[in-house]
Amino acid sequence: MKKLLQSAVIGLACVTASAGVLADAVADFYKGKDVELYIGYKPGGGYDGYARLIARHMGKHIPGNPNIVPKNMPGAGSVKLTNWLWEGAPQDGTAIGAVSRGVPFEPLLGNKKAKFSADEFHWIGSANNEVSICATTKKTGITSWKDLRSREVLAGGNGSGSDTDQFPKLLNYVLDTKFKVVGPYGGGSDVVKAMIAGELDARCGWSWSSIKSKSKDLLESGDLVLLMQMSTVKHPELPDVPLVMDLVRSYNSKKQTQMLNLMFARQGLGRPYVAPPGVPADRAAALKAAFTATMSDPEFLADAKKGGFDLSPISGDQVAGLVNTAYGTPDSVIQEVISAIR
Amino acid sequence: MDASLLDVALAALSVLLEPERLFYLGMGTVIGLALGIMPGVGGVAGLALLLPFTFNLDAYSAFAFMLGLGAVTSTSDTIPAVLFGVPGTSASQATVLDGHSMAKNGEAGRALSAAYAASLIGGLWGAFLLGLTIPVLRPILMNINSPELLAFSIFGLSMVSALSGSMPLRGLSMAGFGILLSMVGGDPQTGQERWTFDTLYLVDDLPLLPVALGLFALPEICDVAARRTAISDSSKYELKEGMLVGLRDAFRNWWLVAKCGSLGAMIGAIPGLGSAVVDWFAYGYAAKTVKDADKTFGKGDVRGVIAPESANNAKEGGSLVPTIAFGVPGSASMALLLGGFMIHGLVPGKSMVTDNLDVTYTMVWSIALANILGAGLCFAFSGQFAKIATLRYTLVIPAIISIMMVGAYQASADWGDLFTLLIFGVVGWTMKHLKWPRPPLILGFVLGGIVEDYMRISYQIYEWAWILKPVCAVVLTLAALSLLQPLFTRIFIKKEKVEFFAFSGPQIRLIDLFPIGLAALLGWALVSSFGWDEDSQGAPQVIVLITLAITAITLTNAIFRRGLAGYSEGSALDLSSDLGGLSRGSYNLRVLEFFAWLCGFLFAWWVGGILLASTLFVIGYMRIRGSESVVMTTAYVLVIGCLIYFVFDQGFHIAWPESLVRTLFPELRGIIPTI
Question: Could you list the residue range(s) of the whole structural domain that residue B537 is in?
């Protein structure tokens, strides 16, 4: 017993010491350096806003306190940036990225320009998850998701590859809804305007956070009817809006659940941050820990509140878990999803 | 205006007149002016950078700051447009034609001050219209849906007839070419890649900025470099006199200013129509309506400056409408403003014209005051700026090229932007010198994509019945009239005898290579479109065939009518090209030399980063090409270097491309900047 205790103490000491050495090695590396946070979009959007917010605070939680410099590298919905992080970027932990929630799944869904394997990246974390909503206006007379199966519904789309295009198409396939996707509209807000004006019936693929901030008036006046929420788990603020995963359960089909999971896992990713696959494990771990620490930093929280940013952080490991699950989807299911959203 | 509305408006003004809020409005205005001067660096990047800073301000100050910044970039962008022919932002492309011609004629001061006065009156008029109509605009916009937007965009395309000078066929074929360029990239609806050469860069479509800078700016700089003289040898007026004349010009043409201001506000209020073409609309409108425009436009007519400048400042007020009424941002800077809304707990929609009308009015006032301040500052300095046009070319070119390269690169942080700039520079120079009108090309390029998108939406919802919607029917009829008007005028009003079938023996010249090359390109485009996704083929193929047909007619005309007595090519509505007394051969050789300098710039950039490239270019151009003193060159290098390092590297944090030096010595990253 005494011996056991002794070895435990020695073991613990070793672990602490090596952790200390490791942290020192990481701190030595980062000290006085810049960490470049590349954003896969142009300045001005949601991904850009969140990334700049995090860049202002995360540096002080990384050992060695590097300065985090946000830079924009837009292109092909962040496929360009993800490709670069995979191969072209410095693999030493001084270049990390803010990529779209959908981009990890692009290679799976047959995008030949996406030349990476997302399950091999170091996922650092995400500051929020996004539940996506399918909604219509009161004047259409549609009151429940079941009505979507009995009549044609014009849903506004933002073109190939967008949520508003893919989500209704997949729902048609899996839930027998009768969406007709009309597009390409220039942006989500154009779809909403067309909906208010009566040109369209629905928008399917609409972040709850965006509804709350940009379309609060529609929500409060009761003109907006929320038909279902699309993610893998329900949003705590929306207990009464049916979750798409629950709807498909009545079919009792494993395959259909897998299909929806592959498509909606991205919602859990929110706006993910990622480090290149070649970053040394200790630095990657430090980045993940720093991200998590940032999420509970009072200064960060105050800044986020001031900027109106919704927060519901998930850790890098959780992001990686979602990505890995999706990469484990059987090939036949993936092929079926691809043909459904075409 | 009823009394209560006036009360709200005045109360809003008094809110804004707090010293602190005025201070932020002023600061935004000054930053906006600085960003507008630098070609390619518009207000959007600056706004994104400074957005977090507005979190701590109260709502009125924050909006005053943001609107101030956004509203005046189209005031100061006139400076490079007039002096160098380089549009500072995409809103001043049309200003180049007459503004820069005036500068060449020694009237830079007059052009600038006329532009500022027009900007000011146009901007105020736009804000006034907005303030007057904002309560009723929401219901009107409710009735403008995809088919109406489609009809407006087609009407916009019909402006080609006003922007082609006396060469309607060449104009049409260039417009068709522009539409095809807008289709390069991933098809937004099907994802089919069209003419992308398997690059990731082109999947996102060609960005407007490098295309516009290439078409209009590079050819002008290139010609200055080839003539090897100052942009203008003489000033026609004394400093103050020129400014006064310009001021008088703007006031004398107040009716034109009011009309173009209204046009700008209207186009700004229609989301998606592309605030990038508002200046061309106004210019085209003026070219069609003012007296003797066909003789003087493009040659330095002050009215050609006043029209676009009054419109592009008015559009900012207009684009506020869809933003606040529906949350549909009319421009990128409005999208950022929308972000500011959420931060301050404002929700776009009905409430902005009812409960929160006072907030809306402070925004209108912010735009108005920023316009006054911006135009005032620019006006005060316009005489000094005008002197730049008389500087030696070796003092002007290094700075413009360095900043323009960075500005173009900033569009999407990709080498593709720089290649686009150079390729369109060659295209633009060729078009300018062979008299193929450039404005229709840019019009087609901006509107082509919009037309295709709205056409798809309208067809999916209404099939062809969209044409019969009342607004659409009227607007489309107007478009047809506008397109055919030059022909009608020639046949029925001027009673010209149009000989459709008079031919001479064939005469082929070297300049026919341009249309022949264009036809070959179109043929290739057609062939390579076979095998695309079925939904993506139709529109491009129709446009290719039409453009091909028009190009063929133009070519046949030229070859078989040159021999006729009294044949004249006609004149493009474009800047004149003066060879400075050189023979065509030696002139072209100098142009080639300049393109070699540009290629050298890019090569040095690729080897060791932008700082190295600009340094070598400045030294090389000033010492080898020119004979500037060592002191002058050193000072110049330092100023440009500091600008690039502090503003673009440390301020904007531009993601520079990886240079050869960094690939070979990765450890230098972070030590040597911009590699």
Answer: 503-563
> pTM (2 decimals)?
0.89
Hey, which residues 284-343 in chain B have their CB within 8 Å of chain A? 322, 326-329, 332, 335-336, 338-339, 342-343
Q: Where are the alpha helices (DSSP H) in B327-438?
A: 332-343, 357-388, 393-410, 415-434
Q: How many domains does chain B have?
A: 3
pLDDT value of residue A15: 47
Is residue B383 located within the same domain as residue B469? yes
Q: Same structural domain for residues B231 and B364?
A: yes
Whole-angstrom Cα Rg for chain B? 25
Nearest to A214 among B342, B460, B655 (CB): B342
Q: What is the band of A51 on the pLDDT scale with cuts at 50, 70, 90?
A: very high
Instruction: Give the C-alpha separation, B241 to B247, whole Å.
Output: 10
DSSP secondary structure letter of residue A243: B
Q: Are residues B598 and B526 in the same domain?
A: no
Q: Which two tokens stand for residue A224?
A: 């907006």
Length of chain B: 675
- Among A36, A72, A217, the residue with its CB nearest the CB of B347 is A217
Do B529 and B490 belong together in one domain?
A: no
Nearest CA in chain A to B139: A197
d(CA A88, CA A5): 49
Stated length of chain A: 342
> How many Å apart are CA B291 and CA B307, to the nearest integer?
14
Task: Verify whether the Cβ–Cβ distance A197 to B145 is below 8 Å.
Answer: yes
- What lies within 8 Å, CB to CB, of A162 at 6+ separation is A184, A205
CATH of domain A21-129+270-330: 3.40.190.150
- Answer yes or no: is B433 within a domain: no
Cα distance between residue B447 and residue B272, in whole Å:
10
Q: H or E element: which one contains B439?
A: helix B439-462
Assess whether pLDDT exceeds 80 at residue A67. yes
Is B460 touching A (CB cutoff 8 A)? yes
B448 lies in the same domain as B545: no
A338: contact with B, CB 8 A cutoff = no
ipTM: 0.86
DSSP-assigned beta bridge partners for residue A202: A136, A155
The answer on B534 and B615 residing in a single domain is: no
For residue B352, tell me if it sits in a domain. yes
Highest averaged pLDDT of the listed ranges A65-74, A246-255, B341-350, B491-500: A65-74
Which residues in chain B land under pLDDT 70?
1-3, 42-43, 272-275, 330, 497-500
What per-residue confidence (pLDDT) applies to B71?
Answer: 84
Q: List all residues of chain B from 211 to 270 with a beta carbon under 8 Å from chain A.
A: none
* pLDDT range class, residue A22, cuts 50, 70, 90: low
Q: What is the pLDDT of residue B634?
A: 95
Q: Which 3-state string (H, E, C) describes B503-538?
A: CCCCCCCHHHHHHHHHHHHHHHHHHHHCCCCHHHHH
pLDDT in tens, B530-587: 989 888 888 999 999 999 999 999 999 888 888 777 777 777 778 877 787 888 899 9
**Residues in chain A within 8 Å Cβ distance of B666:** 90
| Partner A, chain B 406-425, Cβ-Cβ below 8 Å | 412-414
Nearest-angstrom CA–CA distance, B506 and A225: 70
Report if residue B386 sits inside a domain: yes
Residue B326: list chain A partners with CB under 8 A.
Answer: 189, 192-193, 196
So what's the pLDDT on residue A1? 47
3-class DSSP assignment, residue A166: helix
| Domain A132-266 classification at class level | alpha beta
The C-alpha atoms of residue A307 and residue B322 are separated, in whole angstroms, by: 23
Nearest Cα residue to B422 out of B224, B219, B133, B269: B219
Q: Is residue B405 part of a domain?
A: no
CB-CB under 8 Å, B189 with A184: yes
Does residue B158 share a domain with residue B56? yes
